[in-house]
Amino acid sequence: GQNIDQPTEMTATEGAIVQINCTYQTSGFNGLFWYQQHAGEAPTFLSYNVLDGLEEKGRFSSFLSRSKGYSYLLLKELQMKDSASYLCAVRTGTASKLTFGTGTRLQVTL
Amino acid sequence: GAVVSQHPSWVICKSGTSVKIECRSLDFQATTMFWYRQFPKQSLMLMATSNEGSKATYEQGVEKDKFLINHASLTLSTLTVTSAHPEDSSFYICSARDLASSSTQYFGPGTRLTVL
User: Fold this and answer.
1) Distance from C-alpha of A38 to C-alpha of A89, rounded to nearest angstrom
2) Which residues of A touch B106 (CB under 8 A)?
3) Residue B88 Cα, gap to closest chain A Cα (Å)
4) What is the tens place of the pLDDT at every residue in A54-84?
5) Which residues make Cβ contacts (< 8 Å) with residue A91, sequence separation at least 6?
6) How far is B66 from chain A (nearest CA, A)?
7) Per residue in B80-95, pLDDT tens?
8) Least crowded by CB within 10 Å, which of A27, A44, B6, B59?
9) Coil, helix or strand at residue B104
10) Which residue is closest to A6 within chain B, CA to CA?
């Protein structure tokens, strides 16, 4: 089966940098996704990694190490609107099924 | 960017009735769509994979006769919750796979179902 772990909650200050970690154990790995979800809304796509290394997109960066089963999402210059849940999802096989972690609720404070 | 719509955005129904939820990919064709369910403060749980022109593939523990899925075209999948009960109250979210974008899944806005 699949096992994906993320911290449940994190708190950070506006303007700071926060790193959200995700570890996974899975078979048939075919990519890792990060999504942002505000309360009561659907997830929105943030990033995708399939090869080892860092992908940067504006204030958001995502890193993947396939050998370690590890990824992180880095958020820079935090803004209040970044308060949300961040979901790590692993894709397996050719059917493109996603298995989601429990999500990390990030609270950005003044 | 890829846009997925869902209708209705929320629905309240009586116990025992059936509810249909539509999921549409607006600017791309989706041979595969996915249906998820999310309970409060929990993550998304995949219910089934919907394939255009064929039967859906259900995850373990999901009753296929209760959650009917139809994927009649490359842009539309429907989920019908039959004989709904209060325990079916949840946030139902669909996603569509965009083959042109590394098979990224784009999510619809979700449908909040409340069964009285």
Assistant:
1) 16
2) 45
3) 17
4) 999 899 999 999 999 999 999 999 999 999 9
5) A29, A30, A31, A32, A33, A97, A98, B103
6) 21
7) 999 999 999 999 999 9
8) A27
9) strand
10) B43
